[in-house]
Amino acid sequence: MPQPIEPQVIQLVPGAPAIPQFGFGAWQWGDRLLWNYGTGEFSDEDLRAAYAAAIEAGVNFFDTAEVYGEGRSETLLGKFIADSSAPRPLVASKFAPFPTRLRKQALLNALQASLDRLAIDCIDLYQIHFPPFWLGDDRWLEAMAEAVSRGLIRGIGVSNYSEVQTRRAHARLKALGLPLLANQVEYSLLERSPEREGLLKLCEELGVQTIAYSPLAKGLLSGKYTSENPPPGLRGRRTTAAQLAALPDFIALLRQVGDAHGGKTPAQVSLNWIICKGAIPIPGVKNAAQTIACLGALGWRLSPNDIETLDQAALNLPRG
What we know:
The protein is of the alpha/beta class. The chain has helices at 44-56, 72-83, 104-118, 138-149, 163-175, 193-196, 199-206, 233-237, 241-259, 266-276, 288-295, 304-315; strands at residues 9-10, 19-20, 24-25, 61-63, 90-95, 123-128, 153-159, 180-186, 209-213, 280-281. It is globular and about 50 Å long. The mean pLDDT is 92.
């Protein structure tokens, strides 16, 4: 067995707590459409236990957004932070540049609403949730810069930005005297577009941290879904029959790789692959057991040969 490896600690946001190269996403916290919040599948106390297990293990990075559960996610995260005696974690949230939002003040208003729900004075990493194709993002980047100057946020990020959009946002913020700290994109063994389109390489060159949401492909890489047992609800309807049919062989490969590292699960191997690529995975969790299972991705590393094997095998998988 290889010797345990301490998780890499990084300073994602200047002035904010240092974090391991790992975090948790709170998309599930309040979302009914995709994640069945409020159906009895998991409770707020389950989410509180998920948060506590992460903090106890030293993972102190949580990502949320104003649109997750129409603000419920931020409210829950704020409650868990307030009720905990542990130091406050690094908090990331997002502004949605809807077409109805036209003025810079809209971002500042939305930011204040997020701060109120989170019950904190400053958001560590505030991100534009998706590119505003209709009017461009200059006004939002300028509003972000104003928020930094007011002490309402510590750092600026974007989400779902392409290579071209990332390069432009980086240049615009540089002209304002500020860095672009992160780009949060969908990235997993089943979603390789950040590599394929050159985004991962660009972010590395610019010093922009890639944050990977849906690093387990919305549960497909957990090993629990098959053609006979597809994901429930909307997730299942968005998953193709070809994807489900191809999963068993790939999950078997993940298990084989995991067995060589002391019995790591397919999910843990998949998350470790993200870490080895230089990105920060932020899997979503609904309870303490899921948190603890995800934490098994830390403290070890896939070998270069493992990564090459998984890279090549994943190329043959159907895309959604």
